[in-house]
Amino acid sequence: MHRLSALLLLLAVSAFAQTAPKMPTLVKPVEPVFPASLADAGVGGVVVMEIDIGVDGKVMEVKVITSAGPEFDAAAVTAARQLEFTPAEFDGKPTPVRIQYSSQFVVQQQVVEVAVAQDAGVPVVNFKGQLVTAGTREPVAIATVTVGTAQAEADGEGRFELADVPTGTLEVKVTAPGHEPFVATEEIKAGERTEVRYVLRATGDPNVTVVRGTKDRREVAQVKLTQSEFRMVAGSRNDAFKVVQNLPGVARSPFGGSALVVRGSKAWDSRIYVDEIQIPQLFHFAGLNATFNSATIESIAFQPGNFGVDYGRSIGGLVQAEVKTPSKKGVHGAVDLNFFDVSANVEAPVSDTWSMSAAGRFGLAQLTVPFAIKTFVPPAFQNQLGFARAPQFWDYQVRAERKVANSRNRVFITVFGSSDSWAFLQANPLLDSDVEGNRGAASNAQLYNRLVVGIDQKLSDRVTFVSRNSVGFDINEQQGATTEVFFRATQFPIQLRERFRIDVPEAKLVFGAGLDALITPALLDAQQPPPFKANQLPDPYVTRRLIAQTEARTYVEPGLYVDATWTPFESLQVRGGLRFDGELTTMKKAWVNPRLSAQWQLLPQLAIKGGVAMYQQPPDYRTGQLSPVFGNPDLLPEGAWHFMLGAEAKLFDLFELNVQGYYKPLFNQARQTLASGEGSDINIAGNETRYTSAGYGRAYGGEVLLRLRPTRYFTGWVAYSLSRFERDYFGGVQFAPGPLDQPHNLIIVGSVKLPWDLSLGLRFRYASGPLVTPVLASLFDASGNYSVPLPGLPWSQRLPDFFQLDARLDKRFVFDAWTFVVYLDVQNVTNQQNPEALFYNHNYSQSAYVTGIPILPTLGVRGEW
Amino acid sequence: MRALPLMSLVLVTGCGVQFTPETLVDSLRVLSVTAEPPEVAPGELATMSVLFGDPTRVGQPTTVIWVGCEPDPLDLNRSACNDASFLIKPTLITDYPPGLKLLGFSRQAAYAASPGVFDVLPADDLIRTNGSIGQVIAIVIAEAVDVSAMGDEVKQVFQRIEDKVTPAAIAITRVVVSEKAQKNHNPQIDNLTFDGAPLPLGGRLQVKAGQKVSLGVDVPESSREHYTEVQPSGPVEKQEKVVGAWYSSGGRFSQERFDVVDTAPTIFTAPGSAEFPEDPVPEKRSGQLWLVVRDNRGAQAFQQFRYFVCDESLATPRVTGLTVSTSETEPVVVTGQNMDKVLDIVIGGVALTNGTYSASRGAFVGFLSGLAPGIPYPVTMRGQNCSSVDTGLTYTVP
Description:
heterodimer, A: mainly beta, Immunoglobulin-like, Maltoporin, Chain A, 25-stranded antiparallel beta sheet, 52 strands, about 50% strand, B: mainly beta, 3 domains, 28 strands
């Protein structure tokens, strides 16, 4: 006989949905027919399939991923095509989804009469137990336990019971999808109940939930990644945010460093959000790791442009990370130790509704970097490094969340923060040592902390309310070559995000409206020489004329938006909105940005999309551009238009292809004033300021993402960006590539799971070489005793192209209660000498390449439980 | 090597790149531009001097073109002399933008800011006492320029510089223009020692090939002046830092900069060492040493002298007699054996100026000045084989 395990193995949960998704439920089960040709063979099997369910709940596509033989496969597929489900829902809307589904074919044995117990007619449970997954101790909720002819299904806690099992030594077989078959021998004694606990090995990474969902169609230029993808990318050190650097639209960061360069724009143009709360610093020192531990990240989404009106104050790209709900199934965690840092995370349920997680990272660079320099750098060069104290960093994340099972509503509180500091403390007798405490130190310290309260509440069938509010405490300190030159900023940013979503299905409309305000009380204590204007030779007497600014100022940036998403028919979605922004206390200006986008599913395998939108942001007030002393408070908001057209296609059910082109004119860009000469701004009446809003530029290009649909065993993509970025120079007299212009950027990422619990990841990168400003000549500054370069057109010399291959090998040792992982992450496997910059001799008559990292193996260990 | 950003330093690889040391002068190069005094009142003259070296063009004509700019009364550093886009095209100098003046074509020049430079400022404006900066450009070119050159002739000179037809070295220095009473002064170099011993005035440093010599520089405490700097928080009393830098046409130094007070002495490794195989003994075995000291307010002073890499295989000369010159323009003639192997003749601690072997006379010939008459001074012979011999002779200036 046959038997159907109509079970959803891996819930097709979209980690991308704005609100909790609704899973499909089987409403029309269809049992497969046991193949007649095998009926007498006494064999059975399990067929595991992937089933694509349409918005109507009907099965669109069935694919066998674990075969039990052609006959069983055919029977299972035939039955599966007739199944019907309730549609999956994302953000309250039916949406196509893929699930895993298994059909089990079991040979029904002859009924054997056995001696019954004294209480004949009442089954007696004499064999029971629990099934858990090795390494994580997660219950195996979907499993069949067979003892002789008796069978039992595990419940949601992995428990099973068998009654009236014959006495004697019996073989126990356990089959569970996603786990290796398990066999044990048990002795069943008369009058006794045997209780067991079986630990099953998962066939995949037990900590990785392979989740897939349809993309949130409201964003036309968005790419999302889940843990299953970003944990397998070589060279990314398991860091979700670093994986973003491998997506189209992101240029390779100089030195592989910490800047997020989106379509050639400066870092200030792009924003990073965690749970919709903006974080001021994406990466720790040198871009080693993100300041937010990826172990707690559920998914990450990247939009290089054309994002909706719910985000603003940015003219570049957007990175959004969603923190996962802490585990409600026992205590889990991990500890990771490698050359650069040690990190740990733990999560656990606190009650039926509350669960908590905590994570942290502590940099070891202050120990390992000096050691590496002392060991590997030639002595003559060590002297120039001047490390008396190396950089150090740490971060932390603590979260408590209340969420009732099967409910979309939740409340959470998150506290997180990050610190980075470094300094050269080697005494420099040539600097002004007469100031007490000055040892010629140049230092930098950055700290941020956030307390976030989040609420997701479905107010009615039509109205959903999402709230994210935070307060923060940030410190940014920079000290120049002497203690008399410093910049110290302390900020207490308050971010208020309240948004409503109103569904009007009869009109096929979804309305959104929200408040997105950022209020930043700031204390500034700065003392510096007057900023040099473009073209000015620096004055070597840095302390001769210092100017200071000590003030308390609050930047008030209210943001309000309304938008509507109209789906006139299933294949077309149009989204439009208006966003109102401003800075009311310093700039005293407000602005309105219209945004429109659309996506049209021409064919089941092909959609086209497009958008036009306007974006504006305050100039970078963190660097003093709005300072009445160091900058210009009258600057206009920097602006950009985003024009985008693209297409998305599914190829052979294996690949997703995303192609888009964009054009982005920039206007009102803050531009450093010229002191003199052609293009000088200095003659502008009353203009002794350091910036004007006369800058302009443009970015244009195309992006291609060919992505293999992730499976348990393989994930990967090919990303190519054609990107140009141009800015005005010399007061607008000349127009040329911007400093981060990178025409070509190709990234191929692939990860594969191998036998013996090995996994291998490779990443290949090719990018156009970085730009430098050529030095045409030099001038000897006899006052300061150094040569000053006389530059040509800024950023007009391109260095050779960049190539790099990275590899990562993970080996897992799975024990009953925990998993031990050893990994080797090798960056620049071929030891390619990639030029990153030029460095010069004393008078700029000789130059050589500063090359990037050499081959850099990092060995690490991680324990997970 | 220029300072690099942190990451550059951390990530740089292939550290085998060897640049020419900053201390090595192997082409036309400016080492110092001094103003005497270094800080002036509006309208007050400062005498500008330039120290440069060019071992490739010994004895060939060199011209220094001086350009000065009026200080920015608002102390915002606005001037053509301080504009990189202007300096990259020297021909623009002949456009004479506002505030720029051509100061002359000789080794020295005079600079003065306009007497009314601060007239736009209120009488109590701090800029008057803190001062503003007058930039002076020294352009040293490898050709002779007539001091009376004008118009197109001057423009053609700058065109040849801009086209790099004529080698040139351009340097900027700054003259502080202020109304303060206590102005800055140039530092002094009192005494130089080599392995603890002073060098005869005008004499050459004798070194063996690859020899390491400890260089001592004595700058008087008075050169480290106390001064008041007005900062946003108020006046700050400070004492100057005086930093020295050595240069040479050959050999290597242990450090490129040194604090004249705090740091260990600089070690000079003479050419011909095994440590620096790229630094052989020069063909004529002689070279130039320069020392520049600067305070942290821009005042400077310098000295220069020659060194000689001895040939120890040479015979030691023997001085047997010398003629007494009757005036400073009449040479002193020193006779003896192997006189072509003499490096210096030192009389009373002063080496004969322009001392050289005269084949026609078969004697060592040089000029003597600065010694008081009537005193019998000892005569010392310093040979090209690093010998130093008291000749037993004395010399009395008539």
